[in-house]
């Protein structure tokens, strides 16, 4: 019984709803309801559009926006994250399923459901095993490059709908070629509607908010209204398409969207399919998690709240599993909708529950009104949304700041454009890890000297410092491990060969955060070799955790003299004359 | 003309022979000749044995010990390295070729020649591109675990010859199972010869040298004579096999070994074969290079000489290419023979040339005498040689010193035994890299305080230090990069939440050797968040290279106050009362 009670108690932090749910009051309710209304209006066109982007019937987008919101409200730690279909994950879904089924078929939908199931299972497992830190291996430049390239890919894939032609391709080059080949078959009316919708939506983004403010609206309300621009575009073009019989003139409309609640579905239980979907599902999980957590953290910080990444994994896992059982496809916390939810004043995840109710009502009653919605309008919605994700300034910024980061961005972008999302992501991670390893394998080693009048030591090449010709003071600016241990050996060998008067080598270990077994062997070899030449090796400023491990090693037994707490003490001990030179005298004993 | 002269000059450091060759005198000649004689006697049985281990006819071992020695003498930087067939590389050769041809056939030999060619080309390319540092990614524990496991694999593979049965297997478990199944068919005479030879060779290793010293020989000569034990075993068992007609009683002998010079051969020009041999050739190259360089460096250090790893790549590349064109198989610098060469007094690579002459004479005139050499004797030679490579103490040593290193050794050993040499090596490297990344992704962060009476700051948890409650002094013991940037954010968020009186956070950057673009974004986010809470972020002891890159960033523009040269200056500036407390007073200005 006590064990059970304990277990129940340990479950508490896993159910954040128990935290905010208890203090839920009238004021919070109203804030949440208002936010939910605005988000619902925004989500309807977005959900339809992203379902089409993923190659699925539009209503699937609505299905994927109901159950996941409910589950996230129970398990999620962000107060304002809105979970549902998002652009990049929809693109990755299309890329993953494309190899297994033809878009638009029931088989395709079944694979999408299975992908959501696998992705949910992976997220849940990562959460339970507390593997959230793995997402840190996606560096900011890689994410940034990946999102930008994905944005370009998505925009390119929507151009065919805007032009009213058929054009397929697995990467940016193939897509562009297909579009150029199809250009002569462009459907005039579709293009006009699409281009006008796109232009309108761009204007809504840039020009509507200032206009509304000038008309006397409050900044926040103007902002929220401007976000509803896509709904206006959809309403207007749908009414025009119906009134002017655009469908009869060859313009593609969404067509019949089934009315009703999200269906109950099951993933396909086929081990071979699971195996071939495992890697895409993993990539979708990681990308979805990273996008969701970064949005969640940004928004939480604005209100001094915190989110717990491992619990977020559990929440997103539950959301995706629920998507799989209610006819949806992979979902995650979206940037745009979460920001709108936040700006509209959502206080708790209950806003998500109300949004889910709103979407359910829409899929029950609103779908017949969507029949005449031009597909070109949805394409315009997507294009405008994703082009805001494209940020090529990251290239310039990283070029100026750090060449390896620049290479990682560029590699991620180019491979994503040329080889698709999955290859792009894997290459990006591999390149950034390889560059990190390459850098740490060539550590910065500085010969240091005493800054006059202080107890501080700095690089002899950069500062005007005091040195004793009998002492070589070295600072290694990297933890010592197998990949760079040899570099230190080489540096010391060369330095010793150059200085016949040398009697002491002092390693200032302030930047050495770890010494692994390989590096320990190297240090022992260095000590041995120096001793043979009549030179003593000393260590100073060895950090606590490093010292703890060195304690029982041969290295420490062989060292002459103590390990110095500070480099200054070492030099005071080994070279009192240097101290007299700067008029301080040896005031400290080692 | 001048360009050609310059080119010739730049070739000079690539031809070490021009260095020592010019000063070659009579005394050096005698030293080298003596060493060459001893090494030749030792090499003959070893070369035969390793060829059999690789699945090749015994004479191929002799061929592989001629041209490579000559080429190494021209290009190598070690004075005493002896190049030729070695145990681990022979095992890897057998593993690589086994998938392509049946051992003992001409096709098998052709693949071995091709493998030597590819391995030579890879080594040469790595040398020209100066990629010698790549070998550093093989950590000492991985190498040690790999060599030990390979030794066990080789010993197990030789037991069948010792027992006179047929037993094949791709890994330790399969080999052991096959041996147990075949045990009833053991050939008695073979086993007796094999076991006695093994026992004799073990005794030679341990007991002969002390005995010889007691008999009045000098230690060094006794050592060298003890190394000639295998020759004695071979001579005695060969004579006995001939005199007592052991061959007629079913004991396997080496049989006819063709007389003559190494043949001229060409690798197979088959792109498909090259592709499938590429990975094994790469692994053989890296393992061979690492073994060779570590032997070379150990011996060079004893005489205060140096070897140049990238030039060693060129030399080993040339050696392997020459092996491919003279009927050999992959070679590298061997441990045992190089030590013997060194101990016997070799002064220059000319000793290698004389050894090559000795082996050539042996393959011209000695091979008929090898007909009755029992294969069990060769197996005994191999077993005794490789068991000295097995060092299981590395498990205990790394267990005590560093758990990640222990895991890397264990993973390498177990996968090598269970899955063979190639998988074992790749898994070992992958595991050690993953553990390194895992460690750096969770940096050690210490809250530090002033050591009274000094200008030095240490961890508040480990030392008795002074702190100001308004100031949080943090030292991050790791470079900041994408995988650990979030950990710092989390640490600071938590620390700030705990201390309402906080007004300053000072990051002591002495251990931060690099800040990549992701970490810069994190620092900017930290600064922004702290500023919102009325807390100022400061940096101290930023290293030169890091400072150079931070100069033009938003982070530095947003920071209030200067970047402090020392952490002491920062605290002096921000908290003069702390200084008064320790009776020093603010003597320094930032």
List the helices and strands and how they pair.
Two copies of one chain form a homodimer.
Chain A: H1 2-11, H2 17-21, H3 26-53, H4 58-63, H5 67-75, E1 83-84, H6 87-97, H7 106-128, H8 140-163, H9 172-182, H10 188-214, H11 219-227, H12 229-243, H13 271-302, H14 309-325, E2 332-333, H15 335-343, H16 350-366, H17 375-387, H18 393-401, H19 403-419, H20 421-440, E3 445-450, E4 457-459, E5 471-476, H21 485-498, E6 504-508, H22 517-532, E7 536-540, H23 544-550, H24 554-558, H25 567-574, H26 576-581
Parallel strand pairs in A: 5-6, 6-7
Antiparallel strand pairs in A: 1-2, 3-4, 3-5
Helix pairs in contact in A: 3-15, 3-16, 3-17, 5-14, 5-16, 6-7, 6-13, 7-13, 7-14, 8-9, 8-17, 8-19, 8-20, 10-11, 10-12, 10-17, 13-15, 18-19, 19-20, 21-22
Structural summary, described in words:
The structure is a homodimer of 590-residue chains. Chain A is mainly alpha-helical and 590 residues long. Chain A has 2 domains: 10-432, no CATH class; 445-581, Transcription Regulator spoIIAA (2-Layer Sandwich), CATH 3.30.750.24. Helices cover 62% and strands 5% of the residues of chain A. The first copy, chain A, has 26 helices and 7 strands. In chain A, the strands form 2 sheets. A 5-stranded mixed sheet of chain A has the order 4-3-5-6-7. In chain A, helix 22 (517-532) links the parallel strand 6 and strand 7 (536-540). Chain A is elongated and about 95 Å long. Residues 1-13 and 584-590 of chain A have low confidence and may be disordered. At the A-B interface, helix 8, helix 18, helix 20, helix 21 and helix 22 of A face helix 8, helix 18, helix 20, helix 21 and helix 22 of B.
């Amino acid at each position: 019984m006590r064990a059970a009670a304990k277990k129940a108690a340990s479950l508490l932090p896993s159910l954040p709803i128990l935290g905010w749910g208890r203090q839920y009051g009238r004021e919070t309710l109203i804030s949440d309801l208002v936010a939910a209304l605005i988000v619902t209006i925004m989500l309807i066109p977005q959900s339809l559009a992203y379902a089409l982007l993923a190659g699925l019937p539009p209503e699937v987008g609505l299905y994927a926006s109901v159950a996941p919101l409910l589950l996230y409200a129970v398990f999620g730690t962000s107060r304002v994250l809105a979970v549902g279909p998002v652009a990049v994950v929809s693109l990755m879904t299309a890329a993953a399923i494309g190899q297994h089924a033809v878009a638009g078929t029931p088989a395709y939908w079944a694979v999408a459901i299975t992908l959501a199931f696998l992705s949910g299972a992976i997220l849940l497992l990562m959460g339970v095993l507390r593997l959230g830190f793995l997402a840190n291996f996606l560096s900011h430049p890689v994410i940034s490059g990946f999102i930008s390239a994905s944005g370009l890919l998505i925009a390119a894939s929507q151009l065919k709908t805007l032009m009213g032609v058929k054009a397929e391709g697995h990467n940016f080059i193939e897509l562009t070629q297909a579009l150029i080949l199809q250009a002569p078959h462009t459907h005039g009316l579709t293009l006009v509607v699409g281009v006008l919708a796109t232009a309108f939506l761009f204007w809504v983004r840039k020009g509507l908010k200032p206009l509304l403010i000038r008309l006397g609206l409050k900044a926040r309300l103007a902002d929220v209204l401007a976000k509803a621009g896509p709904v206006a575009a959809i309403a207007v073009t749908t009414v025009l398409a119906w009134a002017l019989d655009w469908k009869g003139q060859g313009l593609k409309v969404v067509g019949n969207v089934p009315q009703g609640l999200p269906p109950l579905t099951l993933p396909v239980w086929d081990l071979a399919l699971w195996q071939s979907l495992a890697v895409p599902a993993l990539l979708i999980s990681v990308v979805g998690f990273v996008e969701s957590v970064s949005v969640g953290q940004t928004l939480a910080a604005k209100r001094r709240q915190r989110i717990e990444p491992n619990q977020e994994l559990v929440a997103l896992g539950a959301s995706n599993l629920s998507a799989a059982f209610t006819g949806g496809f992979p979902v995650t916390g979206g940037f745009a909708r979460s920001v709108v939810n936040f700006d509209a004043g959502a206080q708790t995840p209950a806003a998500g529950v109300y949004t889910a109710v709103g979407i359910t009502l829409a899929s029950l009653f609103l779908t017949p009104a969507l029949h005449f919605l031009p597909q070109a309008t949805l394409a315009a919605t997507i294009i405008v949304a994703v082009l805001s994700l494209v940020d090529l300034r990251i290239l310039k910024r990283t070029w100026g700041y750090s060449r390896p980061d620049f290479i990682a961005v560029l590699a991620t972008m180019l491979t994503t454009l040329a080889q698709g999302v999955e290859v792009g992501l894997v290459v990006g991670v591999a390149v950034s890890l390889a560059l990190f390893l390459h850098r740490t394998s060539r550590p910065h080693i500085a010969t240091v000297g005493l800054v006059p009048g202080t107890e501080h030591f700095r690089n002899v090449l950069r500062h005007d410092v005091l040195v004793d010709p009998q002492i070589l003071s070295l600072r290694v600016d990297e933890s010592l491990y197998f990949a760079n241990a040899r570099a230190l050996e080489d540096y010391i060998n060369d330095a010793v060969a150059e200085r016949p008067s040398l009697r002491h080598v002092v390693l200032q270990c302030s930047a050495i955060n770890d010494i692994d077994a390989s590096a320990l062997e190297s240090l022992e070899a260095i000590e041995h070799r120096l001793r043979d030449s009549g030179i003593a090796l000393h260590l100073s400023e060895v950090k606590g955790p490093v010292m703890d491990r060195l304690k029982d090693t041969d290295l420490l037994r062989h060292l002459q003299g103590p390990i110095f707490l500070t480099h200054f003490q070492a030099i005071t001990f080994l070279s009192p004359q240097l101290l007299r030179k700067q008029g301080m005298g040896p005031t400290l004993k080692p």
